[in-house]
Design brief:
The chain is an alpha+beta fold. It folds into three domains: 30 residues, no CATH class; 262 residues, Catalase core domain (Catalase HpII,  Chain A, domain 1); 60 residues, no CATH class. 30% of the residues lie in helices and 15% in strands. It is built from 15 helices and ten strands. Strands 1, 2, 3, 4, 5, 6, 7, 8, 9 and 10 form a ten-stranded antiparallel sheet that branches. α3 packs across α12, α11 packs across α13 and α12 runs antiparallel to α13. It starts with 34 loop residues before the first helix and ends with a helix. 36% of the residues are buried. Bound molecules: NADPH dihydro-nicotinamide-adenine-dinucleotide phosphate (NDP) and protoporphyrin IX containing FE. The site of NADPH dihydro-nicotinamide-adenine-dinucleotide phosphate has 16 residues, from α10.
Length: 500
């Protein structure tokens, strides 16, 4: 015996051998009674949980949010107490690739944050882009189908992507960001994060403000062009994991400055009258000139997880996790996400996903949910298992009720995306690009359109032209210069029916 701990079964009994199966004689068959062998094999069969249906490939780390400014006039949330420090966990991800996908691919990056506040967990499940491809949750599963594999070829389909985008011009803004230099950040520390949606804040006086959250990288933006990314991927599919894990191990802690944009409740009507954009349309930003960035504090990542599966794979972010002082908005995409994420977690990691270490709030948790698979722990007050009760069970706190919303209107399937101006904001972005950025944008789009049928290319070019004549002409020229790659064209999928 050594002083090392004794190997045991999962029920705690010592194990005599972890080398040899129990057989009948030296060359005989294995016995069914070798339960430890059976358990080992059975356990291995259950080592994976389903990967996330989107954002499957990710990288995570713990850190701290330090609030350096006073924004308490907008929100009563404890997390915004001036000078406060709140522990947090971040997970970055690509959207389309599976768990084994390469990190340095052109894609939007997820930017998920979980703040363990003293009044419960606040999750901000955003991206590295301030906008999204679609504005209605009805469109999300369709959009994601175009990003994933074609059911017949099992290949990604450029045809599906451009077919969908060209039929949904509200996607132009996000497509332009995706195809710009910012489409392949070099590593997670070199990109901004955005809450993207309009959320709300409410203060001690019951006043509500609409809000957008921004996290600006302090490391500076850095991106790969396609050729550089290809070289990185040829060497390593794990370049983001290596970079994030490595910099934290070396004590080079990445930081972001947190800002908010604030719009007093009621002003959204003037905003829409003035600009033609809904303040709750996820495909649009609020221009900084109208709603300047207000500094809140700084986020630093400074601790690597000990176990990737336990902490990163089992992390479960919910846009529905808000705390008193922070609320939702009528953004219909956000409303759809409030249902979708907790539903995904119950399926992916189980009913009690919130009791797993990475998800567990650091504030007290008291509720009346009962039982279910893998219920951990015993109730401290077993007689109070229903509500109301006379046995000192937990009670509600009306002081944390958020101010009422003033909604009125006709119930119906209202189409606002059809009326909105989808071209001015991509134009504002396009006009920010210098000539080199524009040329790379054209080249990236032309490359991504390889193999796409001409009628779809033409439909998309018409949108680019509406954004800016130079945008349309630039992409057209880049397509002509790159020529048609027949190998890619022949792999392009099932477009004949639509083309005919
Ligand atoms: P501003 O000139 O005040 O802001 C421009 C913004 O564009 C900055 O936030 C900058 O981010 C960002 N930016 C620069 N290059 C890129 C790129 N390749 N991809 C994505 N973002 C980039 O203008 P407005 O507020 O009037 O917005 C103009 C356009 O800028 C918008 O239509 C939108 O496309 C884009 N944008 C606007 C944001 C907003 O919240 N208003 C946020 C992000 C982008 P950084 O400071 O980090 O360099
Ligand atoms: C992950 C649904 C829009 C950012 C997911 C997951 C689902 C989902 C089911 C997997 C969750 C899991 O298994 O853990 C939806 C739906 C949307 C939507 C239905 C629209 C209606 C968005 C938008 C953003 C976003 C607009 C960003 C602004 C993310 C991120 C993750 C994610 C960052 C990964 C979370 C993590 O790190 O674990 N989404 N999504 N999604 N989504 Fe969305």
């Amino acid at each position: 015996m050594t002083d090392r701990p004794r190997l045991t079964t999962t029920s705690g009994a010592p194990v005599s051998s972890n080398q040899n199966a129990k057989t009948v004689g030296r060359n005989g068959p294995v016995l069914l009674e070798d339960y430890q062998l059976i358990e080992k094999l059975a356990h291995q069969n259950r080592e994976r949980v389903p990967e996330r249906v989107v954002h499957a490939k990710g990288w995570g780390a713990y850190g701290t949010l330090t609030v350096t400014e006073d924004v308490t006039k907008y929100s009563r949330a404890k997390v915004f107490k001036p000078g406060s420090q709140t522990e947090m966990f971040a997970r970055f991800s690509t959207v389309a690739g599976e768990q084994g996908a390469a990190d340095a691919e052109r894609d939007v990056r997820g930017f998920s944050l979980k703040f363990y506040t003293e009044e419960g967990n606040w999750d901000l499940v955003g991206n590295n882009t301030p906008v999204f491809f679609v504005a209605d949750p009805y469109k999300f599963p369709d959009f994601i189908h175009t990003q994933k594999r074609h059911p017949r070829t099992n290949l990604r389909s450029a045809t599906a992507m451009w077919d969908f985008w060209s039929l949904c011009p509200e996607s132009l803004h996000q497509v332009t960001i995706l195809m710009s230099d910012r489409g392949i950040p070099t590593d997670p520390s070199r990109m901004n994060g955005y809450g993207s949606h309009t959320f709300s804040l409410w203060n001690d006086n019951g006043e509500r403000f609409w809000v957008k959250f921004h996290f600006k990288t302090q490391q500076g933006h850095a991106h790969f062009v396609n050729e550089e990314a290809e070289k990185v991927i040829a060497k390593s599919r794990e370049s983001y994991q290596e970079a994030l894990y490595g910099m934290i191990e070396e004590g080079r802690f990445p930081k972001w400055t947190m800002f908010i944009q604030v719009m007093p409740e009621g002003e959204e009507e003037q905003f829409e009258e003035k600009t033609g954009w809904s303040a709750f349309d996820l495909t649009k930003v609020w221009p900084h000139s109208m709603y300047p960035l207000i500094k809140v504090g700084e986020m630093e990542l400074n601790r690597n997880p000990e176990n990737y599966f336990v902490e990163v794979e089992q992390s479960a972010f919910n846009p529905s996790n808000v705390v008193p002082g922070i609320g939702f908005s009528p953004d219909r995409m956000l409303q759809g996400r409030l249902f979708s994420y907790p539903d995904a977690h119950r399926y992916r990691i189980g009913t009690h996903y919130d009791t797993l270490s990475v998800n567990k709030p650091k504030s007290p948790v008291h509720h009346y949910h009962q039982g279910g698979e893998m219920t951990l722990g015993l109730a401290t007050n077993p007689d109070a298992y229903y509500e109301p009760n006379s046995f000192n069970g937990p009670v509600e706190d009306p002081s944390v009720e958020e101010p009422p919303h003033k909604y009125a209107g006709q119930v119906g399937r209202h189409d606002y995306r059809g009326h909105a101006d989808h071209y001015s904001q991509p134009r504002a972005l396009f006009e920010l690009f210098d000539d080199g950025q524009k040329q790379r944008l054209f080249g990236n789009i032309a490359g991504a359109m390889q193999g796409v049928p001409q009628f779809i290319v033409d439909r998309q070019l018409a949108h680019f032209e509406k954004v800016h004549p130079d945008y349309g002409a630039g992409v057209r020229k880049a397509i002509a210069e790159q020529g048609r790659d027949d190998a890619e064209a022949s792999l392009s999928t099932s477009h004949s029916a639509a083309a005919e």
